[in-house]
Design goal:
Three copies of one chain form a homotrimer. Chain A has 161 residues and is mainly beta. In chain A, 0% of the residues lie in helices and 35% in strands. The interface between A and C is medium-sized, with 38 and 31 residues. Strand 4 of chain A pairs parallel with strand 1 (6-8) of chain C.
């Protein structure tokens, strides 16, 4: 009375790699771009359409979903989860991609272990503490931590101010 | 002077699958039931005795332990950890299963990424935010978030009220 | 125009095992010591130089980094992330190991699922709740929870007091 499931093996597939990229197995990485000199640790999933810049470190156990763009020299620590479905209607989008939203992470951002990133913009130079849950755009460079994440300390003015 | 460890390879073993189930490797799934049209992402462990309903999505990096029952159309996002040992005595049960407790997740529940679910009952239609730590039963459908999780907004009255 | 990445397969390598250790695949475990009767679940990474005592349980999806020492009879639940770079300069150490700091976990400590452990000392007998973010040394045995973790309840005086 039991059925056979469809079992998918993905691994690394259809990725545009820059030069000198390192990947540690096992990881499922598909349909994305990863820039020069970047590193991806084990037990990571990176979904299609994701763009990761140069000299980034995506550490073990992290998940980077569709609609996420990451700048250069970004550190994504261990167990970081990105989200593209903010449950805007009070529940999951159930395949209606018009309800998904994008995330943009600026250059030189650091994201601590076990952080959770809702669909937001995070400006360059920001530091997100370990375990933080980022629910809103971060427009002022600083150190943010907590659930939900709040500004702990400004780091410096944005360029141009 | 070093010893050889016992190394266990599990994969998918002794699972009762409904029709049209999809699983992404690598995952360790054993001794459980998974209903029709459900999906299980990569880097997932589902332990023996677990029951998962129809049309569920169990996303990557999640862990579903013994004594968890999940209804139909439930979304378990990425990095969600279920718990069956609530440390009732002030520490782990150390194999004394009489100290373990069960978790029951109702139909149409959505659990956000990196959420942690202690042994509780969660009523149908509930939404649990990303990064929430659920330490108590949820009997009123609503949106719950934070550490510990608290009611942010009621969604609707329970049927029958 | 796409390049070939360096793909590393690690598995279990150069580990000093005590007697009667069990490991569940897939896991990346290298250059560390694991004491008698300890267990390591799947989807775990344990880095070089880590020392784990006797009769420990390191559960699935956990990450134990360099500079972590763990005593005997320690329970590390699922999705627990250890950290050795506290971003002391306001960002990642970028390979400058003089900025890394060590973590020491005493005997009989229990760490709940999805907890995050910054570089700290945790005294013997402590219980860290699920989802806690431990940012400071814990010198008094008790139950600690929250983000950041705070003392919920003392458990008993330290031996010798």
């Amino acid at each position: 009375m039991t059925n056979k499931p469809a079992v998918k093996a993905i691994g690394v597939r259809s990725v545009k790699f820059g030069r000198n990229v390192t990947i540690v197995k096992p990881s499922n990485i598909y349909g994305c771009r990863i820039g020069d000199d970047s590193f991806v640790g084990p037990f990571v999933e990176i979904q299609k359409g994701v763009v990761i810049g140069k000299a980034c470190r995506i550490q073990s156990h992290s998940f980077i979903c569709e609609l996420v763009r990451i700048g250069d020299r970004v550190a994504v620590a261990h167990g970081v989860m990105f989200i593209n479905d903010p449950y805007r209607t009070g529940g999951p989008a159930k395949g209606d991609r018009t309800l998904w939203e994008e995330t943009v992470i600026g250059d030189d951002v650091s994201i601590g272990s076990n952080a959770t990133i809702l669909p937001v913009r995070v400006c360059a130079g920001t530091v997100i503490g370990a375990g933080a849950v980022v629910t809103r755009d971060i427009l002022e460079p600083g150190i943010y931590a907590g659930n939900p994440a709040r500004l702990l300390r400004r780091l410096r003015r944005k360029p141009g101010r």
